[in-house]
UniProtKB/TrEMBL annotation:
Keyword presence, Metal-binding: no
Keywords, comma-separated and alphabetical: Methyltransferase, S-adenosyl-L-methionine, Transferase
A Pfam family it matches: MTS
Cited Gene3D superfamilies: Vaccinia Virus protein VP39 (3.40.50.150)
Protein name per its UniProtKB record: Polypeptide chain release factor methylase
Occurrences of domain Methyltransferase small (ranges): 191-306
GO biological process assignments: methylation
Amino acid sequence: MNETIHWTEHGRNMHAIWHSDSRHPAPSHIQTISQINTEQALRLMRQNTALLWRGDYHQGKQLLAAIKKRVHSKARTHTDFHKHRLQQAQHSRLFQQLLIEIQPDGLLKNNRAPNIAAALNDVFGSPNQHTLLLPLHLLLGYIGAHEWHKAGVAIPALNGKKIHIPYGVFSPVRGEYLELVAQAKLPSPCHTAWDIGTGSGVLAAILAQRGIPHITATDNSTRAIACAQANIQRLKLNEQIHIQHINLFPTGRTDLIICNPPWLPAKPSSDIETALYDPEHQMLQTFLTQAKNHLTPHGQVWLIMSDIAEHLGLRPKEALPKWISTAGLKLIHKTDIQPQHPKARQQHHPLAYARNREITSLWQLAAK
């Protein structure tokens, strides 16, 4: 969300470009501060007054951390998914009320502020030319993502080679489903493959490593396309993998179509959540409905899905098999694996009852 917002500071009329990745509205009332305690800050923020932090950068971080700790300590625990999501959105909107001003070329005027130009360039693709206002917690997310991007994620299914993921692109930390793709039996012959919603490009890279000579990876996200292109080039797989900035399918037919769609049927509250949430499974059902028309006679569809939506009561257990059948597809083989990520083992998370029972599956499908 980008718009010009105005405020008054020391009798002067000020303005800057408001930037936030969330879908909450821009603040309408801004108060500049350089010192305030947690209770005073929370009282103003709950009255819809955004606080523009002019004090020491690290003290601003400490204030934000204290605000989050206070809010979370008093929050009710909701085991209902929708109530949990609503509470998350309310907290997000509240935390968005502590702002920081960024000068052109990524400069911060706050005392002891770091150089954030590289982190912002990672997000925006070029140095910012305007004064920006954005939530401090979002800026900290940008900085953390930049360090994560530089370090990369080692992928065992790629023999330990790294995938580098910038802010705004889904990270392949769920290594268990990558292993399913690396080990599943390919259709025969398998000269071509499509990776639909490629994101970081990791699934396309695994298929290329398995020897498929012609792979097309698609995505409708500009950030994802740039990320996938960089990873494919870094892995020297340009000859095998061609990337297209389109929604869902290229034209023609292929031997293998692979897709790891969003697993939860809920509305995203920010752009980055579109990789996780698919309202009413619209993308999934569209993918299944159209996939059969793009297969060669011996072709297969590989669908990567978690059953967590079923444990959360968001999708009946029989829904996915029914959608597959209605789309003119049949199940050839299904391989299940338990998630290995740390969140699956957390016992105190409100949704632990679902996460602890979650199974990730590779559905290998063919035309009826």
